[in-house]
From TrEMBL:
This is ABC transporter ATP-binding protein. PANTHER family: ABC TRANSPORTER RELATED, IMPORT ATP-BINDING PROTEIN. The lineage of its organism: Bacteria, Bacillati, Actinomycetota, Actinomycetes, Streptosporangiales. It comes from the Bacteria. Signal peptide: none annotated. GO terms for molecular function: ATP binding. Keywords: ATP-binding, Nucleotide-binding, Transport.
Amino acid sequence: MSRTPLPLPQPPPKAPEFGRDTLIACESLVRIYQTGSVEVQALQGLDLAVESGEMVAVVGASGSGKSTLLSILAGVDAPTAGRARVDRWNLLAMSRADRVHYRRHTVGFVRQQTASNLVPYLTAQQMIDLPMTAARTPARTRRARAAELLETLGIAGCADRRPAQLSGGQQMRVAIAVALANQPRVLLADEPTGELDTATSAEVFTTLREVNRQLGVTVVIVTHDPAVSGQVERTVAIRDGRTSSEVLRRTATGADGDTEVIAEEYAVMDRAGRVQIPRDYREALALTRRVRLALEADHVTIRPDLGERS
Ligand SMILES: Nc1ncnc2c1ncn2[C@@H]1O[C@H](COP(=O)(O)OP(=O)(O)OP(=O)(O)O)[C@@H](O)[C@H]1O
């Protein structure tokens, strides 16, 4: 008996190696906190890929797992299961010495509370110097790097000031300079504008964008402020410890020559092919436990299971 071949497109010869082309690659990432008999699943199979040179915002409601993700990427916290790679580092298999090296050279971290990033009795220049001294950078290089960072971040005039003599925006810029002192490939910022007014927040975002563009540093910003999304090319939304959607922004030139920003929302598919269908879509079509899937020429349809047999 001859069979008609299925009209399926040819699959690629081999699935790409995990995280091969990305600087940050998280797959099915799980973090469970155990407090006594209570177990909290802060991350429940999160997927995230960030290319080198990108500036990405991670948004989500309070408790959705944003800070947990950032702590893991910062090498401060370790995942319970899944995969996480940043640059050449496997975050699930780092020795203590690896972790020190990773935190010193691969990632820079700006914390939520501005003050917690700074040392009250040191000047801006001395604070930028600290991580380089820890990394045994020669004095001449340290001086040159501190001067370059102070200049790039627009705070050259603040070199000899202590935190109390700086405005909120200047304090945050010093914190960013400290995080960049050892030339990390990735800058992680946890709610960098949480304590700032609107104008100062905009100033800090401009600084982060300049750092991203001028120094080529990959930037990941965690925030629960949806307004931030308009400032970056890609926003990743986390819900209940999983990546639920991504919004990509690009500029396009219309027929009239005007440029406009186009934002498109995407669902995120993991390597096993799982996609989360938004609740309002499910409710609108009464999609419940079982749905009908069909492969069309250039798309896949999902239909409610109406119970009839075909
Ligand atoms: N050290 C911890 N021990 C126990 N539970 C924790 C711990 N850290 C976080 N959690 C829990 O994990 C979940 C995710 O927390 P996380 O701080 O990552 O969320 P978030 O999205 O950053 O929230 P927020 O915007 O309020 O900072 C929450 O339910 C939180 O209570």
